Amino acid sequence: MPVAIITGASKGLGRALAETLAARGWDLVLDARTEGVLTETAQAVSAHGTRVTALPGDVTVAGHRSELVAAAWQLGGLDLLVNNASALGAEPLVRLAGLPLEGLRRALEVNVVAALGLVQEALPLLRASGAGTVITVSSDAAAEAYETWGGYGASKAALDHLAAVLGEEEPGLRVWAVDPGDMATDLYAAAVPDDSDPRPAPASVVPAFLRLLDERPASGRYSAPSLLVEGR
Known about the structure:
Strand order of the largest sheet: 3-2-1-4-5-6-7
Mean pLDDT: 97
Largest sheet: 7 strands, parallel
Shape: globular
Number of helices: 8
Low-confidence stretches: none
Distance between the termini: 29 Å
Helix content: 40-55%
Strand content: 5-15%
Oligomer: single chain
């Protein structure tokens, strides 16, 4: 069975991806910081009959990243790494004039440094897979200037660039930065708590990720909404 590591997998997009991949027969290593929620997610996902290893922890901790990769190795290797764990930098979001620098450091540490650290740890297994794939979950804030989204957007822009360079340096892998578009997630609610406009459920964008996995286009940056429209 193919094996995937998904960070930030206890809810939102991470959980939706885990559910769908498990239904397709993938074995999974799931990460999140909150143990209780992650355990509940793992139990639900494992109902599909695949092996699911849940490892609560913080992706900024090197030892935890090593545990995630070791768990994938125990399942047989690693075919897909999804860097989905994210930090906003401030909750709710604030303008740059008031953005706490410690918050910015946290966003960069989670969204960029930890993501690269996990890629570095996982590269030997990904290279050995024959179909090794890295997905970094991006944001339209990485490419567009929105008030209050400066710190988070800057971290995602940096992650996009790392993904682009990784795709050049590792031609044997597929490396996709994917902007999932607007979604109704706890992260968005924490970012903009006063925004009550309806947004799509995370599960609604999962078919875009599946299209990438099925068609395996060249490494690059992709928009989930565009993939969904083109796939109709």
